[in-house]
Recover the amino acids of this structure.
C-alpha cells in the first residue's frame, strides 16, 4: 500500500503503483488538511464572497458572477466544455499516473475539494479503471485543461474508460465496482483540471522508461565493444576523474565492470591506437545524457508533489490567491532536455551500428552477412536506425520555445509542456528500437569474434538476448527481430544481468 500525503511521493512509489498495481490511500493528516480547506470554500459560498473559480466564470470570463444556485452546474459545464481532446488516447499507464498525481496534489490541502473527490480518484486507481484521455489538445498552461477534463468526466460517470481490457462507458465500470459517480460542487471541477498532471504523468512514464534504456544502452555498447575488439583504456578511471563529471565517471566504471574479464576487448596499440568516438567517448556522451536525466528526475519529483491548482486557499480561506502554478514551463523545459538526451543515445548507437555493418570499419563480413551479396544481412537494419535517429532530430526541436495566446489573450503565454512530454515519449520508443538494432548487430559481431571469449556479464546478456533473436544464418524479416528485442528490453532491466537495483543513484 502506498500512502499519499501530498508532499513525499517518489518515483519508485509511482513505479509500484503504475506497474505493480500497488493500492493507494491517503494519510490521515492529509485528509484533515483537505477537510479544513473544504470548509473554507463552503464558507466563501455561504457568505457569497466573489472568488475566482468558485462563483465566477473561467479564463476571460472570470468577471462574470455566477448565482449561488448555479454553482454545481458551473462545475459540470466546465468539465464538459473543456473535454475537447483529440487523437489517440494516452497509454493506460499514463492515465493511471494522472489520477495518482492529481490525488496527491489535492491532498496538499490548498484546493478546497471534498474528501469524496480524492476517494473517488483512489477508487478508480485501486479498481484499475483508467479514463480514456485523448493525448492532444493541451497548451500546458492554465493546467492540462483538455486531458484532465476527460479524466474528470470519468469521475462523474461520463466519458469512456479502459476497464478489464476493454473500452467501456465510464458509468458501466463505476457500477461494476460499486463506485458512486461524483456530483461536483463549488470549485471541484476547476480543482480537477487546473494542474500539470498530464504532462507530468507522461513525463514520469517517459522518464522511467528512459532511465532503464540509459542503463541498457551501456550494456549493449559493451557487447558492441567486444564485437569490434574495442580498446578499454579509454574507460580508465583517472581519465574521467580528470574531467570531473560524476555521471561520466559512473558510466566509465560500469563499462569497466561489464568488460573486466573480456578476452575480446583490446588495449592501446594492440590492434589500433585509438577507437572512433562512438566507442571511445561512450562515458562522455552517455554521461552527459545521465546529467540531463538527473535534472529531469529532480523536476519531476518536485512537480509530483506540487500544488498546481488555481486559486489556492490559505489561512482557512482568509487568503485565496489567483496565481500561476498551473503553468507547465518547468516540466516543458525538462521534457525538452530529456528529448535531446535520449535522441543522443540513439544517435551514437546508430554510429556504432554503422561501424559493425561496414566491413571497412569493422573487419567483419560485410553487413554481418554470412553470404555477403547473396544475402544482405544487417544492411537495412542500419537504414532503419538512421531513419529513427533522423526522426528524433525533428521531434527533439524544443516545444517550449513556442507559445500561442488563448482565452481572448488572457492566457497570453503557454508552455506546450504536454507536447514536449509526448514527443519525449516517442523519442524514447525510437531510441529503444535503435538500441534493439544495435544489440542484434552486436550479438552477431560477438558470434563472429567468439562468444566463449566474452566477459561473464556480457556473455550472460548474450545468452538471454539470443532467446528472442536468432543468429543471422540467412536473410529473414528482421522487423520481427526488432520488435522481439524491443519487447525483451522493455521487460528486462539491467538488474536482471548485474543484480543491481533498477533505481540507483547516478553518481
Amino acid at each position: 500500500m502506498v500512502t499519499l500525503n501530498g508532499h513525499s511521493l517518489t518515483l519508485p512509489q509511482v513505479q509500484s503503483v503504475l506497474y505493480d498495481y500497488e493500492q493507494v490511500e491517503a494519510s490521515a493528516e492529509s485528509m484533515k488538511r483537505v477537510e479544513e480547506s473544504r470548509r473554507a470554500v463552503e464558507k466563501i459560498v455561504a457568505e457569497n464572497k466573489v472568488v475566482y473559480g468558485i462563483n465566477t466564470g473561467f479564463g476571460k470570463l472570470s468577471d462574470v458572477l455566477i448565482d449561488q444556485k448555479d454553482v454545481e452546474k458551473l462545475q459540470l459545464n466546465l468539465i464538459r466544455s473543456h473535454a475537447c481532446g483529440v487523437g489517440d488516447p494516452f497509454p493506460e499507464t499514463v492515465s493511471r499516473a494522472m489520477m495518482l498525481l492529481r490525488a496527491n496534489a489535492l491532498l496538499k490541502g490548498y484546493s478546497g475539494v471534498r474528501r469524496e473527490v480524492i476517494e473517488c480518484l483512489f477508487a478508480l486507481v485501486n479498481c484499475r479503471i483508467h479514463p480514456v484521455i485523448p493525448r492532444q489538445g493541451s497548451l500546458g498552461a492554465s493546467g492540462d485543461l483538455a486531458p484532465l477534463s476527460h479524466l474528470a468526466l470519468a469521475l462523474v460517470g461520463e466519458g469512456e474508460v479502459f476497464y478489464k481490457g476493454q473500452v467501456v462507458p465510464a458509468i458501466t465500470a463505476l457500477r461494476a465496482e460499486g463506485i458512486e459517480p461524483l456530483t461536483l460542487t463549488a470549485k471541484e471541477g476547476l480543482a480537477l483540471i487546473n494542474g500539470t498532471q498530464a504532462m507530468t504523468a507522461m513525463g514520469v512514464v517517459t522518464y522511467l522508461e528512459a532511465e532503464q534504456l540509459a542503463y541498457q544502452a551501456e550494456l549493449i555498447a559493451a557487447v558492441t565493444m567486444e564485437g569490434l575488439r574495442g580498446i578499454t583504456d579509454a574507460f580508465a578511471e583517472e581519465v574521467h576523474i580528470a574531467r570531473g563529471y560524476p555521471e561520466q565517471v559512473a558510466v566509465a566504471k560500469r563499462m569497466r565492470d561489464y568488460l573486466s574479464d573480456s578476452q575480446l576487448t583490446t588495449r592501446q596499440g594492440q590492434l589500433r591506437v585509438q577507437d572512433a568516438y562512438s566507442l571511445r567517448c561512450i562515458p562522455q556522451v552517455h554521461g552527459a545524457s545521465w546529467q540531463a536525466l538527473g535534472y529531469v528526475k529532480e523536476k519531476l519529483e518536485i512537480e509530483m508533489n506540487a500544488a498546481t491548482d488555481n486559486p489556492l486557499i490559505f489561512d482557512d480561506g482568509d487568503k485565496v490567491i489567483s496565481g500561476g502554478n498551473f503553468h507547465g514551463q518547468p516540466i516543458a523545459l525538462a521534457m525538452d532536455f530529456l528529448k535531446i538526451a535520449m535522441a543522443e543515445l540513439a544517435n551514437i548507437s546508430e554510429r556504432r551500428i554503422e561501424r559493425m555493418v561496414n566491413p571497412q570499419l569493422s573487419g567483419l563480413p560485410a553487413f554481418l552477412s554470412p553470404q555477403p551479396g547473396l544475402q544482405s544481412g544487417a544492411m537495412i537494419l542500419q537504414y532503419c536506425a538512421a531513419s529513427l535517429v533522423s526522426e528524433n532530430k525533428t521531434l527533439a526541436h524544443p516545444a517550449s520555445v513556442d507559445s500561442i495566446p488563448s482565452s481572448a489573450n488572457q492566457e497570453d503565454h503557454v508552455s506546450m509542456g504536454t507536447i514536449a512530454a509526448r514527443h519525449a515519449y516517442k523519442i524514447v520508443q525510437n531510441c529503444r528500437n535503435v538500441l534493439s538494432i544495435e544489440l542484434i548487430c552486436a550479438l552477431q559481431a560477438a558470434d563472429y569474434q567468439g562468444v566463449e571469449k566474452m566477459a561473464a556479464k556480457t556473455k550472460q546478456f548474450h545468452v538471454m538476448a539470443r532467446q528472442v533473436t536468432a543468429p543471422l544464418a540467412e536473410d529473414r524479416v528482421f522487423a520481427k527481430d526488432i520488435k522481439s528485442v524491443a519487447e525483451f528490453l522493455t521487460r528486462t532491466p539491467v538488474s536482471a544481468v548485474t543484480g543491481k537495483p533498477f533505481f540507483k543513484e547516478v553518481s
